[in-house]
Amino acid sequence: MSLLAQLVTAVATGSVEVVDLTAPLSQQTPVLRLPEPFANTVHFSLRELSRYDERGPAWYWNDIVTGEHTGTHFDAPIHWVTGRNGDDVSQVAPQRLVAPAVVLDATTMAAADPDFLLQVDHVQEWTKTHGALPEGGWLLYRTGWDARSDDENDFLNADETGSHTPGISSECARWLATETPLIGVGVETVGTDAGAAHGFDPPFPCHAFLLGAGKYGLTQLRNLDRLPPQGAVVIAAPLPIVGGSGSPTRVLALVER
Ligand code: MN
Predict the structure, then answer these.
(1) What is the CA(74)–ligand 1 centre distance, in A?
(2) For all residues of the chain together, what is the average pLDDT?
(3) 222-254 in b/e burial notation, b at 16+ Cβ within 10 A?
(4) Peptide bond into 202 cis (omega under 30)
(5) What is the dihedral of CA 225, 101, 203, 118, to 10 degrees?
């Protein structure tokens, strides 16, 4: 049997499970909220064109209104000033959209401290137990934040000092970008950086270092608890928006059972 025939059989019989890591896209999907004077993105919405009525008697369809960085989405290198000469989202090679993924679970730490930051030591500790970070693969950073994703206030967790959501330290972001074979980092939060990352050096280090290195970001993932620490394969399919800095993305994981 060919490799692909084996895969089809494995999916059909459930020995390979397809796990959806994507948050549903609706008006309620949380979006990033930047302070003045920065521009903000819109919430996702549908604009109905017809629904079996005089505007279209036999068909239902909508226009969609969305930001590139709304819901589960893909950050292309060009999204950040450090990657401004890099690929836009339509230029990312399709081969790179199918990749191995490992899951680092920091749920306990993030529950104790919403400003928890992943450090190089945490990742190196993980590799001692689970093996090396995958060549051309994703580090999926689980924080339990997906449990909050049905409520924007809970998800953004902001007070008068700003948003308090877990992320990655500046040094760890630099290390992941420049000293590991990863293709990118995926998170459960609204963006790849911590809520307080505007105050880091450099600001938004995940964006600055990873996108500057030609790597990618995936955000607002869910169901990471259904993946093994290593061994999953992720299919991330952003829309090929020409010139786009990112795109809402369907992210699926293949997991052997
Ligand atoms: Mn983004």
Answers:
(1) 6
(2) 97
(3) bbbeebeebbbbbbbbbbeeeebbbbbbebbbb
(4) yes
(5) 50
Q: Give me the catalytic one of 79, 122, 198, 207.
A: 79
pTM of model > 0.85 = yes
Q: Are the beta carbons of 164 and 114 closer than 8 angstroms?
A: yes
Where b means 16+ CB within 10 Å and e means fewer, 120-150 reads bebbeebeeeeeebbeebbbbbbbbbbebbe
Q: What's the rounded Cα separation, in Å, for the pair 167 and 206? A: 9
pLDDT tens across 199-227, in order?
999 999 999 999 999 999 999 999 999 99
Neighbours of 156 (CB within 10 A): 19
The structural domains of the chain, with segments of one domain joined by +, span 15-24+68-256
CATH H-level superfamily of 15-24+68-256: Putative cyclase (3.50.30.50)
Please give the distance, rounded to the nearest whole angstrom, from the Cα atom of residue 91 to the centre of ligand 1.
Answer: 17
Q: Which residue has the tokens 């074979």?
A: 181
For residues 2-25, average pLDDT = 98
79 is catalytic: yes
